[in-house]
Amino acid sequence: MDNPVIIFGAKGIAHPALEIFNSNGIVVYGFLDEDESLHGTEINTVPVLGHPEDDGFLKLIGKKTEAFVAVDDNKYRKFLVELLNERRKVQPVNAIHSRAYISSDAVLGHGNFINANVVLGSGASIGQHCILHSGAIVDHQAKIGDFVQIGAGSIINSEVTIEEGVFIGSGVTIVSGVTIGKNARVGAGSVVVSSVGANETVFGNPAAKV
Hints:
With 210 residues, the chain is of the alpha/beta class. The protein is built from 3 helices and 24 strands.
């Protein structure tokens, strides 16, 4: 990717997203954020330019500038992705740290945040607009749906299925073959030994429904 990037969002994962692009020698043109108090400020010398819905900035996205959505909240993340799809006819690019390991036959969608020391094993599949924090491991043949967040140091073992919108805290271990249902939440440090239903919250070792 040769074009500069505009990052949508200036909080949460926005700063590490900048570091990811820097690690690959990619220029970040600026940030866009709805919080007007941030406009005119800088993050590591890169300016917060204005509002994400400002057409003056949106028109820059396309042939000469890429976009990345750096927002932790899934609802607002989806809104910004749809905004880019509808008004600029583009998909956000992936932000993949130079120190991540991606297997040659892993499958990646668009708009994913993949931080340093993440490992994606052979045949692993990552959907779109996921957030994988530092040191997360997704083992071979695991399948991750769209808008999934996986905490730092978590281990997703082989042939696990994680459905759309799931949140997995830091330091979680999910044993092979388990399915985590849509929009479920797994608390930090949990060890998941059996499948979790949609919208359930589980925590502990072994993880139990809260």
